[in-house]
Specification:
about 45% helix; about 190 residues; 4-stranded parallel beta sheet; 4 strands; single chain; alpha/beta
Length: about 190
């Protein structure tokens, strides 16, 4: 059953390593039309305004919305994700090291955590300018209470109870702290 939010861009947004891939995977399991590919569902077309008409009725991932250009004139239903800044910064450092095989300078996590906190109001200003209802979710709350999180997402996007149940099965139970390994490797065998 299509979502009643189908006339909007279902925008999953946050700063890097906030849990946006998890929420996109949840929406895909619920049968929401997606952009991008599993497991991250990132789509470089978000930087080209010509593709925005094809995003209507689909879930689209927007990382760091204060940096890129998102055109006005579209209807959005936002899911804004936050994470403990220190843990998010640790995850950013871990991801960078995994991708590049290079280590960042000592103190990088602290600098990144401050940047995350400083950029949050800038991101909120972009969402406010573009308009649309915003569901605020914390990564930690998704992990500690996945049934509540999936219900909130389903209500926000006007999905039925069956969709919420399908989303629930995607959540991998784990502690909210930054894992010492890349979960992506275990989910789909991605290795660097």
């Amino acid at each position: 059953m299509p979502s009643r939010a189908a006339g909007a861009i279902m925008a999953v947004a946050g700063q890097e390593r906030c849990g946006s891939s998890l929420v996109m995977q949840m929406l895909a399991a619920a049968g929401v039309p997606m952009t991008g590919r599993y497991p991250a569902y990132e789509d470089e077309r978000i930087f080209d305004h010509r593709f925005y008409p094809s995003f209507v009725g689909r879930a689209v991932k927007f990382l760091d919305p204060h940096i890129g250009y998102i055109p006005e004139g579209y209807s959005f239903r936002w899911i804004w994700l936050r994470r403990n800044e220190s843990e998010q910064a640790k995850s950013q450092v871990k991801f960078y090291t995994w991708m590049t095989k290079k280590k960042l300078r000592p103190g990088s996590e602290r600098v990144l955590a401050k940047s995350i906190a400083d950029d949050d109001p800038k991101c909120m200003a972009v969402l406010e300018q573009l308009g649309g209802e915003v569901l605020h979710l914390n990564f930690e709350d998704i992990l500690s209470s996945p049934a509540d999180a999936t219900e909130r997402i389903a209500q926000h996007l006007h999905l039925d109870a069956k969709a919420a149940k399908k989303m629930l099965h995607v959540v991998v139970m784990r502690p909210p702290e930054c894992l010492p390994y890349m979960l992506e490797e275990r989910l789909v065998g991605i290795k660097r």
